[in-house]
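Predict the holo structure. Ligand: FE2/S2 (inorganic) cluster.
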Amino acid sequence: MKAEYKQRQASTLSRRKFLKVSVAAGAGLTLGIYLSGCQGSPTPTPPPTSPPAPAAIPEEAGLLEPNVYLTVDRRGIATIRSFRSEMGQGIRTAMAMIVAEELDVEWPAVRIEQSPTDPAYGNQVTGGSVSISQHYSILRQAGGAARQMLVTAAANRWRVEAKSCRTESGEVIHPDGEQRLSYGALVDAAAELPIPAQREVQLKDPQDFRIIGTPVPLYDAPQMVKGSAIYGSDVSVPNMLYATVARCPEFGGKVGSFEAASARAVAGVHDVIQIDSGIAVVADDTWAAIQGRAVLDITWQEGSYADWDSASIRQLLAKNAPQPGEAAADGGAALDAAYDIPYLAHATMEPMTCVADMRADRCEVWAPTQDPQAAKRRVGFITGLPQEAIIIHVPHLGGGFGRRLEVDYVVEAVQISQAVDAPIKLVWTREDDIQHDFYHPLSYNYVRAELDDTGRPAAMPGVRSHPMLFGVPTGYWRSIEHFTEAFARESFLDEIAARNNLDPHELRRELLPARASAVVDLAAAQAGWGSPLPEGWGRGIAYYATHGATHVAQVAEVSVAPDGAVRVHRVVCAVDCGTVVNPDTVKAQMEGGIVFGLTAALKAGITIKAGRTEQSNFHDYPLLRMDEMPVVEVHIVPSDEDPSGIGEMGVPPIAPAVANAIFAATGKRLRRLPIRAEDLRGA
Amino acid sequence: MATVPLNANGQAHSVEVSSDTPLLWVLRDTLGLTGTKYGCGIGACGACTVHLDGNAVRSCTLPVGQVGGRPITTIEGLSTDGDHPLQQAWLAENVSQCGYCQPGQIMAAAALVAENPNPSDADIDAAMSGNLCRCGTYQRIRRAIHRAAQEV
Ligand code: FES
Ligand code: FES
């Protein structure tokens, strides 16, 4: 397995002969697409995370490789390269579905391999929920170009016109409707043909789609349930050592002095070294590295945030911001309110990790990262190696949520490997992960609206958000500031509705454009908005379009116990994300986004005390559990608009939907997250 | 360092490790059985769940020295080719997102259905609430367990 993994990663792009041309791609962006000579390419080794491939093809076999996105071999197997990181959002499967659709092959003939880190793919950042929306056309054209070449090869052989042939399930069909040639039989001839220019590629009529729009199971799922999918933490290379790092618990602090003798005395510990971020313990296995670190004696040098805590940060932010009540003081029919969001951790199920093998003249890295190109640049910067001497492999990510857009763990791993002159696996414990995150920032958020004489605002109220962006490290967290803005704006709309006796659903319909209103209507209708609920229950609604794309509305049904415990029973979610590539993935991402948002709404916040994070593991940074899981129903609005993202979009509406439902159940308005039982006791 | 006997997935091993090493790291680092995952190290997430004598245990808090020769089953040994009814049900319900927690989820569920072939929702809550999934696949896990129970 290990050898195979390395071998696979070392194959593909770099060893092949490429001719680079520039092709204009969608949205005014120009991507360099490499077009290959097609003979003599090495047979790609199937990835360890794919179903067993059919029998091996002969060494000398030809391969059709019209662009960097796919190859077709003599067995008719289409190998599609995912150039974005898989972290549970189903991107590998979705991108391959789009290519396979236009190539016109059956799904079982598809293999997926992870692409190299290469500018040929343009930007490889997996973030902002844009992998599909940015590449939908490019991927269709990539598959369509290959199909066109195969059709031409068949037409030439039959001496008929290419446009009189059609394709179906990996075969070209003769105009007589009888004769057929399989793609596998055509790859050698097709590989000799000129590659069609992008504008000449004939795309399918979406009416004829057979893969796009159908619920295709995740390609990697069979390996995941067998435990054979390879995550960053599972990568192993020969002679690899294991490393942990002790980092200053206080933000901005650094190592003063340290004493390594006790750590070195731990059985299995090889080395104790200083790197930029702290003191690394390098050992034979993970446990020895953890044990060695536990007995390190380090004197930290305090940074300038030693007296920071969450309350003082909040005070600092609110000090120069407008205060709730100002609207009332101004007289007239205005309303205002302020909402608080704490720091939030990503807590990916797989903590940060990275394998690095730094040599004198090259560096190879296995990084479960959302930004392999940033990793490559940073490694170049810290090692002085040229970019060609750096290889970044991207295994599966055990969750990302924006945390893995940072490459701090890559820098650490490379520095340690360089210092000990051996390949190492850097292991972060959960404590490291929770305490050294790039958090969703704590923020103070003020909203104000002028109301007309019916109590309605003229437009959607804007949120004035004041996040703390220095001191405590902050970063991208699934749905970023949209989470914050949705909680403030959608709670505030509910306050306006309550104050003026308006229906919260109706009020949103009045303020939203038609496409958004339709989503709100669908959620309300499916949830039975207005129908009676048991005593002590409440229903709340919220709508949000994260990144201005993808409309999501959610209705939550909750009950509140006398002790203040909140139970979310049911969430109805409606989503309009344009053309749907994989409806099952859309549903899964809405379900997952709701759970992610519920954890933030009900369970977990990060608090800072004495310049450091107070929480350290799941006992004090709890996640939503099975016994707290509501029933979630997802309804997709059919659409033939361009596809938009889904990875983050399920998150923002749920916290305000729940807070609004709590208000409906108890009459208590909650303006800070996470929602605490003590805020509701006896409500 | 000590020589510790281990019986994992029907295979006898003898490993050279310090006997306080949690079973998790012996499985992963020494035996290369990386299907069992690390999530917290304190018994609070279930990612490291394996079977010891057929019972679900958290391997991150179990010192290898306490295991003795008792049989251990990891996700790699649950079935010969991923064909345990739960693994099949997990695929049918398309449970996995990032998939990282799923080996632990499946091992916890396998211990549950071995003892209680037709678990109720309350039984599932009781048996599965110690297994966290940050991707939020709980609803599908529940469905997959019910589906597998019907098929056994
Ligand atoms: S790693 Fe063992 S319970 Fe979390
Ligand atoms: S599937 Fe990602 S943590 Fe469960």
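Chain B has two domains: 2-76, 85-151. The longest strand of chain B covers residues 2-8.
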